[in-house]
Each structure stands twice: as C-alpha cells, then as structure tokens.
Specification:
This protein is α+β, with helices and mostly antiparallel strands. It has 10 helices and 15 strands. The strands form 3 sheets. Strands 13-12-11-14-10-15 form a 6-stranded mixed sheet. Strand 6 and strand 7 form a beta hairpin. Helix 5 runs parallel beside helix 6. It is globular, with a radius of gyration of 21 Å. It starts with about 20 loop residues before the first strand and ends with a helix. The N terminus is likely disordered.
C-alpha cells in the first residue's frame, strides 16, 4: 500500500496539527520550565466528529498521563489534548495521577466538555511532581490563545520540546480534499517501541474508530517503532490521532493508512535529524531474514550497540562490530553467508573481508548499512544515530 507523493500530497513542514479543518491549537509559556520557554500545549478538536485512537509506551513503568489517556481512550473519543514539557509526571504515585486528573478536569471545565474526553501528555524529568498552579493557569492562557492558523500549530509543536533543538511538524493535503497533520517531540530516551517521545496527529477525514485505530497501529509499527536513538523506551511515549471529520470526505482505510504512514515517516526523519548529540544519520537495513520480526530484531541490535554507534561517530567502517552485533541478535542465519555493505561498499562478503575499508566512505552525514543474512525473504529498516561526545555530555547534565 503506497501513497504517491505528488505536488498535491507533498509533505509540508511549514504546517502541522492545525492544517486539517476542525482543529485549533496553542502553545504558551506557563512557567513550568525554569528557563521560561514555551511549555504547555493544547490541541482542540471542534468536530463535528471526535473519533480518536492512541498508541502508548510498552514500558512497565508508565507515567500518570499515559495511564489516564489509555483509560479515557477506551471510549475511542477525544475532544482535546493538553501536553506539558518540563516534567514527565512519572513515578509520582497516586498524587501524580491526581495531578493528571486535575489537568484534564481544568481543560474540560474551560472547554465545557467532560474530563473523560481530554487526553493528557507530559514530558521531562522523571520522579518530580508538576507545579500544578502553573499548569492550571497555563491552560487558561492556552485556551485564550487557541487558533486555526499555522502559527498556532508551530507554537503547539514548540511548547512540547525538552532537549529538542527545533520543533517537528508536518502536514499533507490529499487530492481527495482531506488533510492530515501533526507534530512530534523527542531527542533522547528514544526507542518508542509502542507504542521521551510524544506525537499528536490530526485529520479531517471521515473514518470510523476501529479503522482509525488499526491504521494508527500499523503506521506506528512502520515508522515510530523503527526509530532507535539510544534504546531507551520512555515511560511517557504516546501517539494520539484525532479525527474531526470536518472535510466531509469518507476515506478508505487503506488510503488513510498510506497517507498516515507517509506523514509519520516524515516526523520520524525529523526526530532522527534532531537526536541528542547527533552527527550521523544512520539507516540500518537487514534483508533476506527468515521473518520480518527477525530482521527488525537484528537491525535494532545494531542500532543500539554502543561499539557500532561510536564507530559511526568516528566515521570508522569497522564492519567487525556490526557482524558482532548481528551475531548477538535472536535471528537465525549462517555466519558464512553474512554480507555487510556500508554506503554501497561490500565491506564484508560471505562472513569475511570484502573490499578494502577505504572504499567505504562514511565520513558524511548519512550512513547506509545493509546487512544481508541470506536466510529468507524478509527485511526491515531501523533509523538510528551515532554516539557522540555531545550525547554523553547532554545526558549527563540533564537533571542538573
């Protein structure tokens, strides 16, 4: 299933969650972050439909807003989402869950809807309570600033940033007259496996909830779950998809899933490009595995291996580290058939040395790793980054 990326459906990074009809958004400075930067976002679905779906972290330690949003989404509907940066509200006990409940109740009161129609997301340092006075007053401020305009969408994408350097948003309008848009945040602790990574996606297409949910899970599996910056699956990972139906266009599930996958894939590329300390954009493809699950497992092992990641940082075509990592994967193959290609250079052939290392130029920004197991018909690709001095420095200083 594919969507042709024609001029009519080209992804537009100057637009985001307010591109589809029926949505307003805002991002404001609530004072949650000591630095005084934007830290609270509200996205509102004005309808006429309020269909929604969500995918959440698989981490057993789930933040209070994840537990809340999972609970309210059991009804398959959301009128609005409130997101804060500057605090994860994870590992905060019953009091933290009550803080999430109060957050939802406050936005519901201002919008005159029910609290069970409000999604909540948080991101930031784990283990600390949120300053609820600032959160609640920030909601009033954000609702007053709600707008349909593109600036509002960008503000919404900006106010969820933590260690991100730039906001990440995208939108596309299809030839059929319906649109989809969204934003995402995440730079470290980023191996989503869903479902610290948050995304809100909006659409004005008409689609029933079961198909919306199915499309989201499939798209997440092909995009967000194929990004692995550092192997850390956050306590807060959340992707929410809201449909207003405001275009009036009923869309086939296959067509919608294809467009959603294109949009989510673009957001993931932006997440990879802005990962903490990134100096290399690495694509790892494992091909000719017995199953897709085995191909994915092998690609993720390489993506998370620190020896491989430091070699990428050094522009060192050390294929032995890649072979070592693949050999540790829960993947069946004959080591005597293993081939590894780095940026087009067949540096490992049939389990041994291939072309000279000098032919594998990985000194640039992009590194393309292809691992051929010769064990079956399946393949999978994972996006990752290198392990740099800047990554270590940023994460060692994060909570101080």
């Amino acid at each position: 299933m594919t969507v042709a990326v024609t001029p009519a459906t080209q992804v537009d990074r100057s637009a985001g969650v307010t591109a589809p009809a029926g949505f307003r958004a805002a991002g404001v400075i609530a004072g949650i972050k000591p630095a005084g930067t934007p830290d609270l976002t509200v996205v509102v679905n004005d309808g006429p439909h309020d269909v929604a779906a969500g995918v959440f972290t698989t981490n057993k330690v789930k933040a209070a807003p994840v537990l809340w949003s999972q609970q309210v989404l059991s009804a398959g509907k959301l009128k609005a989402v409130v997101l804060n940066s500057g605090g994860a509200n994870a590992c905060t006990g019953p009091e933290g869950f009550q803080d999430t409940h109060k957050t939802a109740e406050k936005l519901a009161e201002v919008l005159k809807v029910g609290a069970a129609e409000i999604g909540v997301c948080s991101t930031g340092l784990i283990g600390e309570r949120l300053p609820m006075d600032k959160v609640l007053s920030g909601i009033d401020q954000a609702v007053a600033a709600l707008s349909h305009g593109p600036d509002a969408g960008l503000d919404a994408a900006t106010a969820v940033m933590t260690t991100d350097n730039v906001p990440k948003q995208a939108a596309l309008t299809t030839p059929g007259g319906w649109s989809i848009g969204g934003f995402a945040k995440g730079a470290g602790m980023c191996a989503p496996n869903m479902a610290t990574m948050l995304s809100v996606i909006t659409t004005d297409a008409v689609l029933d909830q079961p198909h919306l949910d199915h499309a989201l899970r499939n798209a997440v599996g092909k995009t967000f779950n194929r990004l692995d910056v550092d192997g850390g699956t956050s306590t807060n990972d959340t992707v929410l998809l809201l449909s207003s139906g405001a275009s009036g266009v009923t869309v086939s599930p296959d067509e919608f899933e294809a467009a959603l996958t294109v949009l989510a894939g673009d957001l993931v590329k932006q997440l990879q490009a802005d990962a903490e300390g990134v100096t290399k954009h690495v694509s790892i493809t494992v091909q000719n595995a017995a199953t897709e699950a085995e191909a994915l497992a092998a690609a993720k092992i390489v993506a998370e291996d620190n020896l491989c990641k430091t070699a990428f940082f050094a522009s060192d075509p050390n294929w032995g580290r890649i072979a070592m990592a693949v050999g540790n994967a829960p993947t069946a193959f004959d080591p005597a058939l293993l081939d590894i290609t780095l940026n087009g250079a067949a540096i490992c052939i049939a389990g041994g040395k291939g072309v000279d290392r000098s032919e594998a130029d990985i000194s640039g920004l992009e590194i393309d790793v292809v691992i051929d197991l010769h064990a079956g018909p399946a393949s999978a690709t994972v996006l990752t980054t290198d392990l740099s001095h800047a990554y270590v420095e940023e994460n060692s200083a994060y909570s101080s």
